[in-house]
Amino acid sequence: MSRKTTGLSKDLAHWIQAKTLREPEILESLRKAMEDHADGSMQTAAEQAQFMQLLMRAIDARQAIEIGVFTGYSAIAIASALPADGRLVACDISPEYLNEAAKWWGKAGLSDRIETRLGPAVESLDALIAEGAAGTFDFVYADADKESSLEYYERSMVLLRPGGLFTIDNMLRGGRVADPNDDDPSIVATREVAEKLRCDARVDWSLVPIGDGLGIARVKCSEDT
Ligand SMILES: C[S@@+](CC[C@H](N)C(=O)[O-])C[C@H]1O[C@@H](n2cnc3c(N)ncnc32)[C@H](O)[C@@H]1O
Known about the structure:
By secondary structure, the protein is α/β, with parallel strands linked by helices. Helices cover about 40% and strands about 20% of the residues. Strand 1 (about 65), helix 4 and strand 2 (about 85-90) form a beta-alpha-beta unit. It binds S-adenosylmethionine.
């Protein structure tokens, strides 16, 4: 029993990674390959990716969107949690990152369920809406530029079905979100999306302190009380 979330010491964080992961070989290789990459810290934490897979399977997700792919760690985790005929729309602004990611999901045998959209993700989401995909997605993972978070959220609200999940990474910003003197625009944007999600009656909401903080909003169904 505890009335507070347990803070993670280095040892405890290590224990979680050593004793609770079921990381497949391809994801372990990709994680290790990014250890020396200049932007390797952008990769989603392994335990968080595993948790997202659990969420997806709990809602029987078949259609998903990722906003911010980098070299494909979370995309491979998400695509692996879909059925063989499922679809992940993977959005990124960088052709270099998308090309590298495609090599990894090719090795994982997942290319047939991942469709890439190159460009600013707001435009990619608008294009999906224009294509008639409103209400057809089960799961969204937003992990790109934080200043666009509210735009990603509002477009996801159009694209998700009732009962679908909008998830958003880096809600803790390494602790900076709680520093009242930190008024960096991207930190302010994270505080704004946290407040929006907390107050939005259209969704159930929780912030889970896993990785750098995973926000989870579930689109309410008409039969919800
Ligand atoms: C934190 S990384 C994503 C990490 C990835 N989810 C993983 O687990 O490896 C952020 C990504 O967002 C992309 N990005 C940044 N701004 C973007 C935008 N406006 N539209 C689409 N992608 C963007 C970057 O190119 C980068 O690949």
